[in-house]
């Protein structure tokens, strides 16, 4: 079972300071906070203030549709690449993105037959799809995969970094090879695919990236020091990449699943595990895929970047990260 401690502390705020000082609000917003009745201004939230504020925000966002708050129909993603897309969560994500209208590149490392089956299912929906073999920890293979994607589809709108492995062992018994294999694929692989996708997305000034991390990266797990380190690294990498890419309208977010009923959880004492989950059950790949689809394709997610979305049945309630 998972073992974890309570959060270290709770942040506090000095309420005696003006909100404009605490948050350093933009000049436009500060002018409304300073406004007082009878002083020629309007209080924040008043009916008379809202239209004026909206107009000023529109003027300050020249060249950006609707102040960048809502993506236009033309911005809806069309081409997606899913690493580790032949099975489990990756398979569910690839199919869900196809249902939402994306053409999909299904990456796989060894399960060619399974990847081909996913491609066939996507094509049966009326979307285009190809299967591309690549080890995401190998830079040359990653670059070739992205080149093949552009050659076929001319662009890339969505990247879902899902490929991952486990090589479990207690810390004192873990071999360096076990450590390196997991770090190379689960963390370096995400970095390499992020780098390759950003070269395309930053140039086209649009894109959605979703990294699949894990609740283990937030709360740890005995016997998975390598996996926890890699998935925790993915969370930090997500935040750093989001800050670098935001100015070009490329969003980067992470999803952290808990125990999901896939091949990776096969053979575990599932009944015992379920007892430790507030919702009392394991999650399904399709539930994770629905969250990924929202972050990757929904116009309502255009203003979300640099955040971690935990989907774990409540397992990690109270954890930070």
UniProtKB/TrEMBL annotation:
GO molecular function: 3-oxoacyl-[acyl-carrier-protein] reductase (NADPH) activity; NAD binding
Pfam families: adh_short_C2
Top-level taxon: Eukaryota
Family, per entry: Belongs to the short-chain dehydrogenases/reductases (SDR) family.
Coiled coil regions in record: none
Catalytic activity: a (3R)-hydroxyacyl-[ACP] + NADP(+) = a 3-oxoacyl-[ACP] + NADPH + H(+)
PANTHER family in the record: 3-OXOACYL-(ACYL-CARRIER-PROTEIN) REDUCTASE, 3-OXOACYL-[ACYL-CARRIER-PROTEIN] REDUCTASE FABG
NCBIfam families per UniProt: 3oxo_ACP_reduc, PRK07231.1, PRK12826.1-2
Oxidoreductase listed as a keyword: yes
GO biological process: fatty acid biosynthetic process
Binding residues for NADP(+): 84-87, 162, 227-231, 260
Protein name: 3-oxoacyl-[acyl-carrier-protein] reductase
Active site positions, chain numbering: 227
EC number from the UniProt entry: 1.1.1.100
Keywords, in A-Z order: NADP, Oxidoreductase
Ranges of residues in domain Ketoreductase: 78-263
